[in-house]
Structures are given as structure tokens and as C-alpha cells.
Amino acid sequence: MRWILAILWGLLLAFAVWGLAVGLMLATPQELAALMGFAGFMLLASRLVWGYSALLDFIGALHRGEEPDRSVAEAAVRTPQADTLPATVLAGFWLAALEPYRYTFFATYSLLLLIVLALKLSTPLLSAWDWLTGGSLIEGVFWGASVAALIVWALSAAAAARLLELNARGTAANA
Amino acid sequence: MKQYRSGSVQSIVLWTLVIALALGFALGSYSAASRARAAIATAEALAAGIPPSPVVTSARYDKANDALVLKILNPGLVPVQLIDQSLVFKPGAASEQEAYALAAIPLGVEVPPLAELEVQIKLKPESKKLAAGDVLAASVTYAHPYSNDLYMLTHIFKVTEESAKGKEVPEPAQPNLNRPKEQGGK
């Protein structure tokens, strides 16, 4: 049974690698640029993606009334008194600790947006066809980065909203 | 706590879905456009490699200038040099003009890619006006950049009552294997 599973898993991996290789060979340079943009910005956002995911887990546990694992949160907040903070406050500090990375990410993304917009606007709108299919590689990087930006924005907004819900509930309970 | 970022989780999920749809559309359009671009570049490269072959799209007899005027289309993507022209005249029953041939009269015209232009082929000076039943065979030699050879295009012009007055005779739109029989039209 284990051997059959191992062989099936190996086949699946082999097919995945083969499909990926064929896809990369058939891709246009613009599509590869978009893939590179996505990969690059996901690398820039990795800290945010992992951070917000763990924060959402932390807040989710608080929502369910469970005791969350505080060790990751305390490491992320990096304050000497982190172990004395209540869990809700710790979550808020954690959200604030991720803010510089979020700022850096969106600053880089805005820079890319400005470059792409400048290139687009400096191209005379002679024919719609040329404008749409200009084949600019930096534009592909921008579209790939946009997917990463959407992921980061959705995670950060969701974490903030979930924390807000938790605080609103706590305020209502205390009142 | 101050609400420094507004929005409930539900609205964030909804907005994320809406933006994801729009972003997917944009990314898909960009990818499709890049593919269309590549396909057109390939087709263009293929078409540019085909040696051009000029086509006579219509012919008329210019009575005032005593010339046969051919409209020549270059359907290829490289220019065609029209080098010289020849003319063979075969009289019909109604003609008073004897048969004659004019050979290798320099032309020196370039037909640009995908362009059409008119070429005047002068009849023999001081020859009689064309009459119905006469036949002209006009030949144009041409060259293109993919070969050092000379090619020849021959157009047979049968003079009818109408074309003798100078009316234009368009070629049939569809390639017609029976063309020699139908030449000259109605």
C-alpha cells in the first residue's frame, strides 16, 4: 500500500514538473514577466503573508474563546513585557509590528505603478491595438505584482477587521 | 479603539472577490494580447518570406494616349521591380492594322508591398486605333528581392466593342480556370 502511494505520488510530481516545464516553454515573454513579478513581490510579501496568516489564526482562537499559542505573537512583537500583555492587546501590537513591512511593500508597488503609468502615458494613443498589445515587460511585472498586492491587502484588511470585531465585542461585554 | 481601518470581514471578502475578478480579467487580457502579438509577428514573418507575384486586377484601352493601361497589384510584403514590357498585337477581322510586336521597352517602376498602381503600355506609334476582335498580349518582366531571376507576367487583352471605346475591363474576382474563354467579358 505504501509503495503504491509512493509511486502514485512520484507520478503526480513528475506530471506536475512536466506540465510546468511545458507551460514555461510555451509561455510568451510577457507571461514570464508577469510570473516573475508575482514571484518577486510574493518574496517581498512573504513576511506579511505568514505574519497576517498567523495573526488571523491567533485572533480566530480568541474569537472562539480558546487560549491561543502566544509564543509566535511574543516573538513578533519584540517587547520585553510582551508576556505580561493581554492577548487582545498583544494581537494589536502584532498588527502594528507588521505595519513597516506593509508600508515597504506598498511603497515598492506604488513605485512600480508609477513607472508603468509613466510608460503607458508617454506612449501616444495612436492606435488602441498598439496601446493594448505594446508588449511591455515591465507591465507584465506590474500585473503579476498586482496579484501579490491583492493578497497582501486582503490579508491585512481581514486581520484588522477581525481584530476590530474582537475589540468591539470586548467593549460591549465590558460596558 | 479608534477605527483606523473601516470595513467588516464580509465586505473585505466581497471586495477581494470583485478586485480579483477585475485583476484576473486584466491579467488574462494582457496574456492574450501578448499571444496575439506573437501570432501576428509569426504570420508576418511567414508572409514576408513568400516571394511576391504581381497580379493584373484590371485593364483598359486608353484611346486618347494610344496605350493599354494595366492595374498591377503587389499582394506580397516585399516590393516588386517592374523592369520592362513587351507587346504583341494580333489584328482581328475588323482591323486595318498589321500584326506587330514591341519588345523590352524599359519600364523601371517599383510596386510597393500591398499596393496597386497603373502601368501604361504604349501601343506602336502611328498604329491604327484598336477595333473589336483585336488581341493584345502585354508582358511585363519583374524581379523581387528574393531572387536574381527575371519573371514574366503576360496579360491577354481581347478587344471588344466596349473596351475599344476605352471602358475598363475588371478581372473576375475569383480565380477562374476558364479565364481565357471569358476574357473580354460581355
What are the SSEs and their pairings?
The complex is a heterodimer of chains A (175) and B (186).
Chain A lengths: L1 H25 L2 H16 L1 H18 L6 H8 L9 H36 L5 H5 L4 H38 L1
Chain B lengths: L8 H40 L6 E8 L4 E7 L6 E11 L9 E12 L4 E7 L12 E9 L7 E8 L2 H4 L4 E2 L8 H4 L4
Instruction: Please identify the top-level CATH class of the largest domain in chain B.
Output: Mainly Beta
- Helical fraction of chain B equals 25-40%
**How many structural domains in the coordinates of chain B?**
2
Q: Which value, in Å, is the CA radius of gyration of chain A?
A: 22 Å
Number of distinct helices of chain A? 7
Task: Tell me the overall shape of chain A.
Answer: flat
Number of strands of chain A: 0
β-sheet strand percentage of chain B: 25-35%
- Overall residue-averaged pLDDT value of chain B: 84
Major β-sheet of chain B, in short? Answer: 4 strands, antiparallel
Class by SSE composition of chain B: alpha+beta
The largest inter-chain interface, given as chain pair and residues per side, is:
A-B, 27 and 24 residues
In this structure, how is the largest beta sheet of chain A organized? none
| Spatial order of strands in the largest sheet of chain B | 5-2-1-8
Q: What structural class is derived from the secondary structure elements of chain A? A: mainly alpha
Oligomeric form:
heterodimer
**What is the count of helical runs of chain B?**
3
Q: What labels describe this entry?
A:
heterodimer; A: 175 residues; mainly alpha; 7 helices; 0% strand; flat; B: 186 residues; alpha+beta; Immunoglobulin-like; 2 domains; four-stranded antiparallel sheet; 3 helices; 26% helix
